[in-house]
Amino acid sequence: MDTSTAVSEGIAPLLNPFLLTYTMVMSLMLLSLLRYANNRPAAAFQAAPILLKRLGLPISSFSSSLFSASSVSTVPRSLPSFANETLTPAGTRMPACVHRILTRAEAKERVLVVGDVHGCLEELQALLVKANYTAARDSVVLVGDLVNKGPLSAETVKWCRTQGFYSVRGNHDDSALAAYFRVGKFAGVSSLPQAYDFVAALDEADVAWLDSLPYTLSIEHLGVVVVHAGLLPGRPLQMQQAADMSRMRSVKRAGEGGEGTWVGVEYIPENGEAEPWAKVWSQEGKECEGGEGSTDARHLLFGHDAKRGLQVFRKATGLDTGCCYGRELTLAILPGEERISVKALKAYQVPHGLKSE
């Protein structure tokens, strides 16, 4: 075989119109994914097979091995967000992993899901002792808002990080990052408010850990999704907005007559114009079972709503029992329905408005 024949036979497969189109689409898709992932290649490669499947495009054995090779054990399993958000409500960049998946191996024998800690580290440690926590048997998942209001915010972040705990991102965690990076409402300020003095005590590892926290954590084999504030009924998981996941307390129908889609409301209205989102979620049926990509998600565990305290609905449980206000810190033990609480050592802050809780 002469050289020209070998070359022509070698490039012939590349001239196949389908392969050319497929290659171009994949190249454009990867560029888009890199942009979506804020130049985080691991996140982009992990999301690629999902997006290609959504577009009805085949994934070759080569591309499958490429994607799987990039998803090494150090990269957590996750679902891509299609909400098209680049900044959090506080003004920091969105995390690389918005929707985290906790595998069966990571979950261990028991999963302890803890309500809003808000810097109450001593109460957190006492709660884990009461639950007979052992690192070999148990995984700890925090519902977010590790910081502010209580006395030991920086210490709480550092301890939870070094213990290997999991957490979702709360609105106060977002605000702490904004204060650290001087963005959002903290942009251009010469000195931080006293409530955020603690960020000066965070080291680079602490900040990187906070910055990595996802908005949701799905424990698929237990049929659970953990989120800080809530999920909007009727909207797929991967289309949920950061503001709802980190700040929402209630929902109401958009438009007149109560016939529109659900919209999130941060405050708790006094006139009955909105309902607890968790109550609506538990009534809405299959459209609220976690959305596309979380096939076994049936029950939500959340925090954020100290005003309402412990909330137990058919498909959602609220665990913020107001420890920083002198009430209790609560955890749920999975699998099962057992809950354990400890009393706060003191009231570290007096509630001063629904929007600030």
TrEMBL record:
GO cellular component, one term: cytoplasm
Statement: the UniProt record of this protein carries the keyword Transmembrane helix: yes
GO biological process: polyphosphate catabolic process
Alphabetical list of SUPFAM superfamilies matching this protein: Metallo-dependent phosphatases
GO molecular function: endopolyphosphatase activity; phosphatase activity
Keyword list, A-Z: Membrane, Transmembrane, Transmembrane helix
Residue ranges constituting the Calcineurin-like phosphoesterase domain according to the UniProt record: 110-262
Protein name per Swiss-Prot or TrEMBL: Bis(5-nucleosyl)-symmetrical
Residue ranges of the TM segments: 14-34
Keyword Transmembrane: yes
Organism: Nannochloropsis gaditana
